[in-house]
Amino acid sequence: MSALVSPQEIVRSGLCIGCGSCVAQAKVPDVQMNFDDYGQLKPTGDSAWFNQRSVSFTQTCPFSPEAKNEDDLADHLYPTAEQQHPSIGRFEKAYVGHVGEADFRLQGSSGGMVTWVATELMRQGLIDGVAHVIATEDPQTNGRYFKYRIARTEAEVRAGAKSRYYPIELSEILKIIREVPGRYAVVGIPCFIKAVQLLRREDPVIRERIKFTLGLFCGHMKSARFVESFAWQMNVPVNQVEQVEYRLKDHNHPANWYNAQLTLRNGQKVNRLWWHLADGDWGAGFYMNSACNYCDDVVAETADISFGDAWVEPYSSDGKGTNVVVVRSPVIEQLVANAIQENRLELKAVDAEFVHQTQAAGFRQRREGLAYRLTWQKKGVKPRKRVAPDAKTPTRQRKLIYRTRYYISAWSNRVFKFARQLQKPQIYYRWARVAAAIYHGLAYHQGKFKEMFKRHSELKG
């Protein structure tokens, strides 16, 4: 190991994703995960711990340059995998489709597969609990809209259905798993699953108790300010928001027409399509965690099974939702194969290229875009990734898009913070509309100013 790093160095270098693995391992009091000024979760507490360089932290932080990368982890976890692909990693089988059983598909944001697999593992007696994300009961009191919890019944597992584009962290759940004997599955985005796998290598208790990992395809992590922006733009008080639905399912609309809904304390519900929100274009990168600029895993390559949306036709137009699934664990592959035979799952096999196609934009950002970003000057800890720095391959157009997305990500956090401090949402709106219009013109219309002006007018409404 060439260089040890501390939590402080990872945070200051913009490489902390807020997973909470470091806090779960801390053996000192008063160390916890809290929101920073931008609405991202970061470790806080004992300064001696925060500034200490250690082997354990260096080996288990998912963005540490000295930690095992996804290829190394997958080689160890899935040595007998039937297939291997540069983007998808090692895997047994890949599928596209949805759950045919009960109302799993209806209750999920996509095809219902995440909840079904977690439930099936419990039904088959393979696990005692599932660590997954649920909505908090009183977000205005506890300060968070979502959190991890361990579900121990099928009803509790199913209560965790739906997508949550909100900062969450694993510290308390990992502590519970270490303290309470049992067999657990963990659901998480790629970097969280990587953090779990790194910790499993170092901690025999965690290794023995976490039996399965369920990964979610990921574009990037949003900050908590995204919810506040929803409230601002829907003209409702932020302090009255009780529930957040990021993707309200509507069978009459294509699956990629995201519809955000807020439920207030008085029961009132308000909603708006993301397309009509100033910061609703996912690809523009509003509120993105800075660490996401240095991630090269789209499909949770270290998870036993991972799930995404099938963003290709005819699936993206199906408002009921469709999953693309990559299976790496032989045990889970057998569960899936049995359920297909029993007509409980409506899945068909696909190849790695199909999976890649469904996430093409994400792979451009995290492979070509990442290679380009690695050529930029950066202060602090330098990430070590599976792609080599490359400023020659991207076209001038692609470079402009990557630069624009990077600055939108950084400045959306800063401008929102300023507008929030002054309680003047219009400061943020005006900036966001211009930024979104510029990105729209660059990304979809070869930089045509006419299209930028058109999109800005649409957002002004």
From TrEMBL:
<dbReference type="InterPro" id="IPR007516">
    <property type="entry name" value="Co_F420_Hydgase/DH_bsu_N"/>
</dbReference>
<keyword id="KW-0560">Oxidoreductase</keyword>
<dbReference type="InterPro" id="IPR007525">
    <property type="entry name" value="FrhB_FdhB_C"/>
</dbReference>
<dbReference type="GO" id="GO:0052592">
    <property type="term" value="F:oxidoreductase activity, acting on CH or CH2 groups, with an iron-sulfur protein as acceptor"/>
</dbReference>
<dbReference type="GO" id="GO:0050454">
    <property type="term" value="F:coenzyme F420 hydrogenase activity"/>
</dbReference>
<protein>
    <submittedName>
        <fullName>Coenzyme F420 hydrogenase</fullName>
        <ecNumber>1.12.98.1</ecNumber>
    </submittedName>
</protein>
<feature type="domain" description="Coenzyme F420 hydrogenase/dehydrogenase beta subunit N-terminal">
    <location>
        <begin position="95"/>
        <end position="175"/>
    </location>
</feature>
<dbReference type="InterPro" id="IPR045220">
    <property type="entry name" value="FRHB/FDHB/HCAR-like"/>
</dbReference>
<dbReference type="Pfam" id="PF04432">
    <property type="entry name" value="FrhB_FdhB_C"/>
</dbReference>
<dbReference type="Pfam" id="PF04422">
    <property type="entry name" value="FrhB_FdhB_N"/>
</dbReference>
<feature type="domain" description="Coenzyme F420 hydrogenase/dehydrogenase beta subunit C-terminal">
    <location>
        <begin position="183"/>
        <end position="352"/>
    </location>
</feature>
